[in-house]
Specification:
By secondary structure, the chain is an alpha/beta fold. The protein contains four helices and ten strands; from the N terminus they run E-E-E-E-H-E-E-E-H-E-H-E-H-E. Strands 8-5-4-9-10 form a five-stranded parallel beta sheet, with helices on both faces.
């Protein structure tokens, strides 16, 4: 059985290296003969597709960003690199409490710097123009699901900073694959055993 996607679907969750990717009537050849992936972008003629990718600074998220940029180049899409940030909960004498509001600037600034560093490290200079940066307050899964509304594709790494050793998929990736409003690609980092 040949894998394919058609209809109002985002760039297919099958990496382009596995066949010929067709988008908007344009075929993009790849390394595997005889396999064609049919793709229809959700935007109208002349509209660019939108790929959302979660970036937390981990190696897995940088690999997801690299994959999203390559996919965007093949499908003439934009990449929305999104980093979530939130106040760390603190435990005190009255139980769990939010961190002081004064920390907001420091936490948001650290998230912004992590996003900038990941883009600088993972995206070739000639592709930076495809990237739209996004910082959003909230838990990573909730932020990514919100940002994925109206997107053609959501790309996440298999593990972030909080991963359990040996787990096949992190909690954010698991939540996104089950609840996303669009197709999801989970990119495994080379150290994940693939």
């Amino acid at each position: 059985m040949r894998p394919w996607c058609s209809g109002q679907v985002a760039p297919c969750a099958i990496p382009p290296a596995y066949g010929t990717l067709r988008t908007g009537g344009k075929a993009v050849p790849s390394s595997l003969d005889g396999l064609t992936v049919e793709v229809a972008m959700s935007g109208g003629p002349g509209e660019q597709g939108r790929i959302v990718v979660g970036v937390d600074g981990s190696e897995s998220s940088k690999e997801a960003l690299r994959w999203a940029v390559r996919q965007a180049e093949l499908t003439d899409s934009t990449v929305h690199a999104v980093t979530a940030w939130e106040y760390p909960p603190l435990f005190g004498s009255i139980g769990w409490v939010d961190a002081p509001q004064e920390l907001a600037g420091d936490i948001k600034g650290a998230a912004s710097r992590a996003l900038d560093h990941a883009i600088e490290e993972a995206v070739p200079p000639e592709q930076v123009k495809r990237i739209h940066r996004g910082l959003a307050y909230g838990t990573p899964a909730v932020v990514l699901l919100d940002q994925a509304r109206g997107a053609d594709l959501l790309v996440v790494g298999s593990h972030g900073h909080g991963g359990f050793a040996g787990a096949l998929l992190g909690s954010v990736g698991q939540h996104c694959t089950q609840h996303a409003p669009c197709p999801v690609v989970v990119v495994r980092h080379a150290s994940d055993g693939t």
